[in-house]
Amino acid sequence: MAEKRRIVRIFLASPGDLFEEREDAKEVVDEFNSQLADYFGCHIELMGWEDTLPSYGRPQALINQDLERCELFIGMMWMRWGTPPAKEGNYSSGFEEEFEISISRRRKTGEPEITMFFKNIDEDRLKDPGPDLQKVIKFKEKLTTGKEILFDTFQDEKIFQRNFRRTIQGYVKRVYESEKRERDIEDHAKSNEKNLTSIIGSNKKVSDYPFSTEGRNFLYEILKKIEDEESLENISPLEVSRFRLLANIISKPDNDSPSLGVHDANIIFLNKKEVDFGMPKISKLVDIGLKNIKHENVPLWHWYSIFEKYFPGFINYRTSLYVEEDKRIGALEAMCLIEAEIKFPDNHDESRSELIDNWFTDSTSSNVKLAALKYLKHHGKYEDLTVVQAEFNRKDYQTTRSSLEALLSIQLRNDRNEAVETALSTPFETLDGNLIQQMVSGELDFDEEVLRVGLKHRNVKVRLACFTKLKSSNLLSVDDAKSLANDNTASIRMAALNVLLGFD
Fold it and tell me: Does this model's pTM top 0.70?
């Protein structure tokens, strides 16, 4: 069987005045492939080196395709800047385009690694640099001040060969050691999995435990790192955040409430492609997002969408099972934002009414009730009116207005006349303006006595709507107008006075 080797793609970029150095680079790569490829289990493919050879060349677009595949970009410059790759474009040379594409990709994905080599220039040439050399000098100064890309200098081919050889061998060695460490961790994890299964018995799976395989592998990797003398230097911010996340998964009532900070949550999100998180971690990240939903500073919806695929309708349980108030409120707010329906798996016995009843128990805080009423205001059904009415009848000053708004909104979606009748018979001064507008806009289909009662309502929009209906129906009496001439609202007083002048 043929031995499999990893391909390491290195892109070599430079203008056309470093022909000999490009040949040297090819020789160094060939030397590595013949002498060290077996040891490291990889083969280096040098890309781009042939494009400045005499009588050879490719369109820049094809060269750029190679750029997207490379994992190490090595640039070389001397005195030439190069020529534009196209008559019309944003780049003044092919090298500039190659470099900018690579650094843009690195900023987005972390790849490729980038190294630059500058060949030393005679002092006499620096005294009177031409246009090309001026661009090279300006580019080098940009790298120096930016401190984003490392570069080295060389005087002759011998020094270049040494530096180039050190660069590619150092990169391959880092890749080799990293991948070997990952293989060791994976092998150890499989061994741990087997040992753990033998300990807990064949009746239980390792997945039944709070940490996923990924979580246990990570803990093992951390343990190996902290055995080092320079352990703290070897641990990254991402690893600290992941460690704290794991600690959040395990909690007991006697302990403090677990929590992951905003910065840690965002570090994990920014590096989400680097880690294959297990469901326990994703569940906890959802919890942290729900807890901070009102602040809008912690990622939620990415983790939410993943968890929803595996556990459809899970958000319903988050509203009823949590002891922590802010997480229950966050779950209700999330349901409201995405217009989530209350639904349960077919094999689940809990009903919609039981879940909503759970939102309004005697032990439920007013803040949770307010979040629940907000959801019902926008997404409640007619069958939910009983529990909303019961909350309104409690006359809790903290929830009275919200429960009335939810009550009226549900009625409006089913029968506008019912909502208006409830509004006219219920004293209130302030309420959601849009809600009142929906009720009073259009014709009010009520008898004279009901409308006359509405003239004394505490809400100005309700009083004005009843006044307008009575007037248009020629049912407004002098006594009605006189009572409204002393109204607290100027617009109603003016309308009443105009009516009284008409009677005269």
Answer: no
